[in-house]
Amino acid sequence: MLGRYHYHQIFRKSIIAFGTVFNNLVIKRKSPDRSNPEALESYKVPVMYGPYQKFLAMIAGEPTPERAGTQISLPRISFEIKGLNYDVGRKLTPTQFTRTIPPAGSPAEESKQPAQYAQFVPVPYNLEVELNILSKNQDDGLQILEQILPHFHPSLNVSIVVIDETREERDIAIVLNGVGYQDDYEGDYTTRRTLIWTLNFTVKTYLFGPLDLQKDIRKVKIDYRSDIVRRPAEIRYSAEVKSLEEPPVPRDEVNPANEAWTYVETFQDIYSDDNAFFGMVQNEGQNIMDQQDL
């Protein structure tokens, strides 16, 4: 069961979608007395993946020949994964299959024989993500916080393409669980003050298993035994697709979406030529284009 390679990059896509939500935040600094309504400075807040302790260490570190003498700028947003949990509340029946018609332009769609993608239903998992807002003054942090909180009540949905082959999109809910605050004000006058707002999120994502490309069934054959006392028999039933186009299209290349087709049923007594005993004759389906495929 295990050992079949597949990698849909769902965790990576979920984290990228999470970071993209916060990549357009801007703060504006005005004159201290607020006499000028126009902003003196506008600053786009950078967003980076990683623990906030890393950026605090960069701020406190001494410059070296290998490291620039200027410190990193604040405010800044950092985020990182803190945990991963199975979501029982979103569990689906694990034996169910989902089938998808290959999208236009895909290699499966361009092949002559129609096919479908088959895959087990996804498994729900929750990503625990911590987002930290680092600022050197209170107003900068409050500006960022006020641009974030109104959009979460308490969740925000974003769409991502979870499977590249089928181009299936899923809504990923980002849930805000809580907000924390830390002010590192202790220290001497040479120590740089850092304000940290901590926001805890849950990203409700899905994990998918391997993807199978299955061709449409164009012929079925069933053998079954009858228990009639007068004459026991083993009967074979078969049905196959038949093209109604001129010239006829091969059975495996019939496109049910835009070509006329039908089906042909056959009953046969395997051990006797007297097929009329059971009324076994060949039946042919109706001449329609929207007949359900077999």
Can you summarize this structure?
The protein is mainly β and 294 residues long. The chain has 2 domains: 10-212, 2-Layer Sandwich (STM4215-like); 217-284, no CATH class. 12% of the residues lie in helices and 40% in strands.
Fold and architecture overview:
The protein has 4 helices and 15 strands. Helix content is 12%, strand content 40%. α2 links the parallel β3 and β4 (76-86). It has 2 domains: 10-212, 2-Layer Sandwich (STM4215-like), CATH 3.30.2000.40; 217-284, no CATH class. Mean pLDDT is 80; it is low at 287-294. With 294 residues, the protein is mainly beta.
How large, in whole angstroms, is the Cα Rg?
32 Å
| Distance between the ends | 29 Å
Shape: elongated
Q: What is the CATH class name of the largest domain?
A: Alpha Beta
- What is the subunit organization of this protein? single chain
**Classification by helices and strands:** mainly beta
Strand order of the largest sheet: 3-4-7-10-9-8
The proportion of residues forming helix, as a percent range, comes to 10-25%
**Overall number of strands:** 15
Largest sheet: 6 strands, mixed
What's the pLDDT, averaged over the residues?
A: 80
CATH superfamily of the largest domain: Myoviridae tail sheath stabiliser
